[in-house]
Specification:
- The protein has about 190 residues and is α+β, with helices and mostly antiparallel strands.
- It has three helices and twelve strands.
- Strands 3, 5, 9, 10 and 12 form a five-stranded mixed β-sheet that branches.
- The protein is elongated, with a radius of gyration of 25 Å.
- The N terminus is likely disordered.
Length: about 190
Protein backbone atom coordinates (compact mmCIF):
# COMPACT_ATOMS: atom_id res chain seq x y z
CA UNK A 1 0.00 0.00 0.00
CA UNK A 2 1.48 3.35 -1.03
CA UNK A 3 1.33 6.28 1.37
CA UNK A 4 0.78 8.79 -1.42
CA UNK A 5 -2.33 7.12 -2.79
CA UNK A 6 -4.93 9.72 -3.75
CA UNK A 7 -8.25 9.86 -1.92
CA UNK A 8 -11.46 10.81 -3.63
CA UNK A 9 -12.57 13.61 -1.32
CA UNK A 10 -16.25 13.48 -2.23
CA UNK A 11 -18.41 11.88 0.42
CA UNK A 12 -20.21 8.69 -0.45
CA UNK A 13 -23.92 8.28 0.46
CA UNK A 14 -23.10 6.56 3.77
CA UNK A 15 -20.84 9.43 4.82
CA UNK A 16 -17.62 7.49 4.31
CA UNK A 17 -14.85 8.61 1.97
CA UNK A 18 -13.91 6.65 -1.13
CA UNK A 19 -10.41 5.48 -1.91
CA UNK A 20 -8.93 3.24 -4.57
CA UNK A 21 -7.55 0.81 -1.97
CA UNK A 22 -10.16 -1.13 0.05
CA UNK A 23 -7.75 -1.73 2.98
CA UNK A 24 -7.01 1.95 3.23
CA UNK A 25 -10.72 2.75 3.02
CA UNK A 26 -11.41 0.39 5.92
CA UNK A 27 -8.56 1.86 8.00
CA UNK A 28 -9.82 5.39 7.35
CA UNK A 29 -13.43 4.59 8.17
CA UNK A 30 -12.40 2.95 11.45
CA UNK A 31 -10.00 5.75 12.45
CA UNK A 32 -11.31 8.00 15.23
CA UNK A 33 -8.79 10.66 14.16
CA UNK A 34 -10.12 10.77 10.61
CA UNK A 35 -13.69 10.74 11.91
CA UNK A 36 -12.91 13.74 14.15
CA UNK A 37 -11.30 15.62 11.24
CA UNK A 38 -14.26 14.89 8.97
CA UNK A 39 -16.69 16.17 11.64
CA UNK A 40 -14.61 19.33 12.11
CA UNK A 41 -14.60 20.03 8.35
CA UNK A 42 -18.36 19.52 8.19
CA UNK A 43 -18.83 21.82 11.19
CA UNK A 44 -16.73 24.53 9.47
CA UNK A 45 -18.86 24.18 6.31
CA UNK A 46 -22.04 24.66 8.33
CA UNK A 47 -20.58 27.71 10.13
CA UNK A 48 -19.48 29.29 6.84
CA UNK A 49 -23.04 29.05 5.60
CA UNK A 50 -24.16 31.00 8.69
CA UNK A 51 -21.21 33.40 9.15
CA UNK A 52 -19.52 35.63 6.59
CA UNK A 53 -17.13 38.58 6.53
CA UNK A 54 -18.81 41.99 6.62
CA UNK A 55 -17.84 45.65 7.00
CA UNK A 56 -19.92 48.57 8.27
CA UNK A 57 -18.80 52.08 7.37
CA UNK A 58 -19.71 55.56 8.55
CA UNK A 59 -18.52 58.77 6.84
CA UNK A 60 -19.47 62.28 7.89
CA UNK A 61 -18.14 65.61 9.17
CA UNK A 62 -18.44 67.75 12.26
CA UNK A 63 -17.76 71.45 12.89
CA UNK A 64 -15.43 72.54 15.68
CA UNK A 65 -16.73 72.76 19.25
CA UNK A 66 -19.65 70.41 18.52
CA UNK A 67 -20.60 66.98 19.85
CA UNK A 68 -23.02 65.00 17.68
CA UNK A 69 -24.36 61.43 17.62
CA UNK A 70 -23.87 59.23 14.54
CA UNK A 71 -25.30 55.72 14.10
CA UNK A 72 -24.59 52.42 12.39
CA UNK A 73 -27.60 50.08 12.32
CA UNK A 74 -27.23 46.30 12.40
CA UNK A 75 -30.05 45.03 10.20
CA UNK A 76 -32.87 42.73 11.24
CA UNK A 77 -31.69 39.55 9.50
CA UNK A 78 -28.33 38.89 11.19
CA UNK A 79 -26.20 39.63 14.22
CA UNK A 80 -22.80 41.28 13.75
CA UNK A 81 -19.68 39.99 15.49
CA UNK A 82 -17.16 42.84 15.31
CA UNK A 83 -13.42 42.02 15.31
CA UNK A 84 -11.66 45.28 14.31
CA UNK A 85 -12.29 49.02 14.30
CA UNK A 86 -10.48 51.36 11.90
CA UNK A 87 -10.87 54.96 10.90
CA UNK A 88 -9.30 58.16 9.69
CA UNK A 89 -9.94 61.88 9.96
CA UNK A 90 -8.70 65.07 8.35
CA UNK A 91 -9.38 68.78 7.97
CA UNK A 92 -8.90 70.78 4.78
CA UNK A 93 -6.87 73.41 6.59
CA UNK A 94 -3.41 71.91 6.11
CA UNK A 95 -1.58 74.84 7.74
CA UNK A 96 -3.00 74.39 11.23
CA UNK A 97 -0.36 74.62 13.94
CA UNK A 98 -0.63 71.85 16.45
CA UNK A 99 1.06 70.75 19.62
CA UNK A 100 0.98 67.25 18.15
CA UNK A 101 2.55 67.50 14.68
CA UNK A 102 1.56 64.69 12.37
CA UNK A 103 4.38 63.53 10.08
CA UNK A 104 3.60 62.57 6.52
CA UNK A 105 5.59 60.25 4.28
CA UNK A 106 8.04 63.08 3.41
CA UNK A 107 8.76 63.91 7.04
CA UNK A 108 6.85 67.21 6.95
CA UNK A 109 4.48 68.05 9.81
CA UNK A 110 2.22 70.70 8.28
CA UNK A 111 -0.99 68.76 8.63
CA UNK A 112 -4.29 69.59 10.27
CA UNK A 113 -4.37 69.43 14.04
CA UNK A 114 -5.98 66.49 15.73
CA UNK A 115 -9.35 67.36 17.10
CA UNK A 116 -11.83 64.48 17.20
CA UNK A 117 -12.68 62.19 20.06
CA UNK A 118 -15.41 59.58 20.21
CA UNK A 119 -17.55 57.57 22.57
CA UNK A 120 -19.13 54.27 21.46
CA UNK A 121 -22.39 52.84 22.86
CA UNK A 122 -24.38 49.68 22.17
CA UNK A 123 -27.87 51.21 22.32
CA UNK A 124 -29.62 47.83 22.59
CA UNK A 125 -28.01 46.98 25.91
CA UNK A 126 -27.15 50.57 26.90
CA UNK A 127 -23.56 49.42 27.40
CA UNK A 128 -20.80 52.01 26.95
CA UNK A 129 -17.96 50.46 24.95
CA UNK A 130 -15.47 53.21 25.78
CA UNK A 131 -14.69 54.90 29.05
CA UNK A 132 -16.11 58.27 28.07
CA UNK A 133 -14.61 60.10 25.10
CA UNK A 134 -11.43 58.62 23.61
CA UNK A 135 -9.19 60.62 21.30
CA UNK A 136 -9.60 59.31 17.76
CA UNK A 137 -5.90 58.83 17.11
CA UNK A 138 -5.50 56.48 20.09
CA UNK A 139 -8.28 54.14 18.98
CA UNK A 140 -8.47 54.31 15.19
CA UNK A 141 -5.82 53.64 12.60
CA UNK A 142 -4.58 55.38 10.50
CA UNK A 143 -6.29 58.15 12.50
CA UNK A 144 -4.94 61.52 11.37
CA UNK A 145 -1.82 59.96 9.87
CA UNK A 146 -1.13 58.68 6.39
CA UNK A 147 0.61 55.46 7.31
CA UNK A 148 -1.58 52.43 7.91
CA UNK A 149 -0.84 50.56 11.12
CA UNK A 150 -2.30 47.50 12.79
CA UNK A 151 -6.08 47.91 13.22
CA UNK A 152 -7.34 48.04 16.79
CA UNK A 153 -8.99 44.79 17.97
CA UNK A 154 -12.57 45.63 18.88
CA UNK A 155 -14.30 42.35 19.71
CA UNK A 156 -17.97 42.72 20.49
CA UNK A 157 -21.15 40.89 19.42
CA UNK A 158 -23.95 43.23 18.31
CA UNK A 159 -27.43 41.71 18.10
CA UNK A 160 -29.72 42.29 15.15
CA UNK A 161 -31.76 45.52 15.18
CA UNK A 162 -29.02 47.25 17.19
CA UNK A 163 -27.99 50.84 16.66
CA UNK A 164 -24.31 51.43 17.36
CA UNK A 165 -23.98 55.01 18.55
CA UNK A 166 -20.83 57.02 17.96
CA UNK A 167 -20.79 60.34 19.82
CA UNK A 168 -18.17 62.42 18.00
CA UNK A 169 -16.69 65.53 19.60
CA UNK A 170 -14.65 68.09 17.66
CA UNK A 171 -12.27 69.84 20.08
CA UNK A 172 -10.90 72.21 17.43
CA UNK A 173 -10.90 75.69 19.01
CA UNK A 174 -10.83 77.39 15.61
CA UNK A 175 -14.20 75.83 14.69
CA UNK A 176 -12.77 74.06 11.64
CA UNK A 177 -14.75 71.21 10.13
CA UNK A 178 -13.17 67.77 10.49
CA UNK A 179 -14.13 64.85 8.26
CA UNK A 180 -14.04 61.27 9.45
CA UNK A 181 -14.48 57.72 8.23
CA UNK A 182 -15.14 54.81 10.58
CA UNK A 183 -15.12 51.12 9.73
CA UNK A 184 -16.20 48.12 11.79
CA UNK A 185 -14.96 44.82 10.36
CA UNK A 186 -16.14 41.41 11.47
CA UNK A 187 -18.71 38.75 10.64
CA UNK A 188 -22.41 38.73 9.93
CA UNK A 189 -23.86 35.81 11.87
CA UNK A 190 -27.14 34.17 10.89
CA UNK A 191 -28.79 32.91 14.07
CA UNK A 192 -32.28 31.60 14.88
CA UNK A 193 -34.72 34.35 15.85
Amino acid sequence: MQMHEQLNRSAMPNGQYATQNPLMAQAISESPVFDAIAKEVEHDRELTAMKYNYTYTLSDSIVGQQTLPFFITVEQGTDFSCKWILGSAYSYDAAVDTDFPIPNSLGATAWAGRGLSLQITDTRSGRNLTSGFVTLETLLTPGYGLNFQQPYPFRYHFYRNTKIRFDIRNRDNANRTHYFDLMLNGFKVITPN
